[in-house]
Design brief:
Blueprint lengths: L18 E3 L2 E3 L42 H10 L13 E4 L15 E5 L1 H14 L5 H15 L25 E6 L12 H12 L5 H12 L7 H9 L5 E2 L2 E2 L17 H6 L3 E2 L6 E2 L12 H18 L4 H16 L10 E3 L20 E9 L10 E5 L5 H6 L3 E3 L10 E3 L10 H4 L6
Helix pairs in contact: 2-3, 5-9, 6-9, 8-9
Length: 442
């Protein structure tokens, strides 16, 4: 769920992980929604004999083998993947802005998104499986898989080849950079349920969301049919729709111009965001915080929404049902709670699940849920306890990059001494795994 923001319970697959949420049982391997098949009998036919996340006796009782950011960085570089319960739950990973002395997330945000140890474990599994390859197509698969677990909207390049020239084209894949950290004393990781968001608005911005309005906004998320997902709810609620078919499509909350201005949503949402925000270049039209060309902050955005729309709407006794779209849009535009924000504390992606054992067409909606996610204070890296910045795959030198079939390039606009590895996509077929399956257990 980032600024660049953005389904199998098995007949033939060993269950990879189970998460209970209210009325939902989520699993990583399936081709059926029949609840009688949740606990397969007999040996698995297609999945790993050792399900992902299987507890290790070595780590029972909190005897973690990865407790610090440096431990995690070492595991990445050595392509190791201990069991999930071997990673301390105090470790978090965030993909965002990591230039020297940066914040965890772009500095215009009040909060940063963090993934917990469940996702951190999945990254290690994928890195161990694919990260040592010298095949660029395999590297692109790894990069895409981790991006989907983080919560990026997955699309494919529109031009082939995506030659790495000067400067590299934006569509040239490069390693996923994440910060690994523990929180300083006093900082708290919060589950991004919608009620947590409403509490944050009241606590940090003095914006009070009436209980009934909050209930009405949450209700559609609790009444989805098995064929619906959270993105469907978001687009219906806000009118901010994407277009195209997976995996070549645009994503709802990114419907903004190059300057970050908000567009392509319902008339009520557009009216709610028809206000001016202060920016470093002077007053400007409200824009999506974190978008290219938008220097407004989370506070600027929420305060503008409150003063321009919420307060007048409440004073005029506007029907709450008319207000739920703008409220949901405000969470997306002001603090990057994009359409994938489930309100359950679990990540979600419409993209194919890398850990499913079958094609995209056979994956269910419940398979698209990923690991536990949190919101944390958007601290400077220097305020965290010995944070580490890690690349997946760990191609941190020209020799490693070129050995994997990439091109080592110093991107214009990056700090001196911060080169990056880029991969050329020669044909569309490189992305066939998005529809045919990642083949994690092959």
């Amino acid at each position: 769920m980032l600024t660049s923001s953005f389904q199998v319970i098995g007949r033939t697959c060993r269950i990879a992980f189970l998460v209970f949420t209210g009325a939902a049982l989520l699993s990583a391997c399936s081709d059926s929604n029949n609840s009688d098949e949740l606990f397969p009998v007999g040996p698995p036919l297609a999945c790993s004999d050792q399900p992902i996340g299987q507890p290790s006796k070595e780590c029972e009782g909190g005897q973690y083998t990865i407790t610090t950011p440096q431990d995690y960085k070492n595991a990445v570089r050595k392509f190791e993947a201990p069991a999930e319960n071997c990673i301390s739950p105090d470790l978090y990973v965030t993909a965002g802005a990591f230039v020297p002395e940066s914040n965890l997330y772009a500095d215009t945000f009040q909060y940063a998104w963090g993934n917990g140890s469940t996702n951190a474990h999945r990254y290690l599994e994928m890195n161990k499986k694919w990260g040592q390859s010298n095949d660029p197509a395999t590297m692109i698969k790894l990069i895409t898989a981790i991006q989907s677990f983080i919560g990026f909207g997955i699309t494919i390049p529109s031009v082939y080849p995506t030659a790495v020239d000067a400067p590299p084209r934006a569509q040239s894949p490069s390693p996923v950079r994440v910060a690994v950290y523990t929180l300083p004393s006093g900082d708290v990781a919060r589950v991004p349920s919608f009620e947590s968001w409403f509490k944050a608005l009241e606590r940090d911005f003095q914006i009070v969301i009436p209980l009934k309005l909050g209930q009405l906004m949450i209700e559609p998320y609790t009444t989805m049919t098995k064929d619906q997902d959270v993105v469907d709810v978001f687009t219906t609620m806000t009118g901010c729709g994407g277009s195209g078919a997976y995996p070549e499509r645009t994503w709802p909350s990114t419907g903004s111009g190059t300057d970050g201005t908000i567009s392509s949503c319902s008339s009520e949402v557009m009216m709610a965001f028809d206000f001016v925000v202060p920016t470093t270049a002077g007053p400007a039209q409200a824009c999506k915080v974190g978008a290219s060309g938008c220097s407004a902050t989370t506070e600027d955005c929420f305060q503008g929404f409150n003063e321009n729309y919420l307060i007048p709407a409440l004073a005029n006794n506007t029907d709450y049902r008319q207000m739920i779209g703008p409220l949901r849009a405000a969470l997306a535009f002001c603090q990057d709670a994009n359409p994938f924000n489930t309100g359950l504390g679990l990540g979600y992606n419409t993209a194919a699940n890398p850990f499913a054992c079958t094609s995209y067409a056979k994956q269910s909606v419940s398979d698209r849920y990923t690991g536990r996610e949190f919101i944390v204070p958007n601290e400077l890296l220097s305020k965290l306890d010995a944070p580490q910045v890690v690349d997946f795959p760990p191609l941190n030198s020209s020799a490693a990059c070129e050995g994997a079939g990439g091109t080592w390039y110093v991107e214009i606009g990056r700090p001196a001494g911060s080169p990056q590895c880029y991969f050329t996509v020669e044909t569309r077929s490189v992305y066939d795994f998005l529809t045919e399956g990642y083949g994690f257990w092959d």
